[in-house]
Amino acid sequence: MNLTAFNELPEDTARRELFACCGSEKWASAIMRHFPFSSEKQLVELSSKIWYDQCSESDWRESFTHHPKIGDVKSLTEKFAGKEQAGVAAASTETIEALAKANADYETKNGFIFIVCATGKSADGMLALLKDRLQNTTEEELHIAMGEQQKISIIRFKKMLPDSDFSFLKVSQITTHVLDTSTGIPGKDISIRLKASKDNEWKTIAQGITNFDGRIPDLLPQERNLKPGTYKMVFDTGSYYGKSNTQTFYPKAEIIFNTFDETHYHVPLLVNPFGYSTYRGS
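RESULT FIELD:
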């Protein structure tokens, strides 16, 4: 189905399809006020604007309730095997059980389930990310989870409209790439936090873990830009080197940088056990 065909659906059907992309009544009602949509770009832009500017904590929490729990074997098998969470579905029983326990700990702490855009992530990578996010405050997790929901909404738009044109979508405004200069290979499975200053305190607003190529291509949702200002990326280099029992002088590498506009900012890290450097990449 393409957008033209979607626009010809009865309104209640179209709303039901959109609600399946993001389970918030307020979000779905607000976006349907613009139905039919003039373009795929308008749909994505409206989704982001309504989600961030018109919805509140109660709406974000409502949407989280429409996700299966990460590591819930039955739910993953029935609803998500081979779909958005294929990495989890193919995981070992041990990993699934560890995910279930960590997710239960997360829900007990924060009052909502762990939300992550699982596409392209291995089960082991998600388990590491889940354990790391357990260290965040509930306020930080709410902000991270709403960003993950927006990423998921865009993915579901594409699945809902497989014959539509989403080529306008750009990469995340903030990207990174880690290269271990001591080995000459990418820094895989490194947890990275993106932080913003709020009330004179650094707060995590997005978090991810590097892939096999040492990259995080989707730290922020597509078409979502940060306000110009000062931000910080924190790389958990201590845990990375700890996996190989390598002693490192820097347990964390912190890079503070400025954004000036809505252009793309690539913040790479060149790291070894006793030093690191960075530059603005492309």
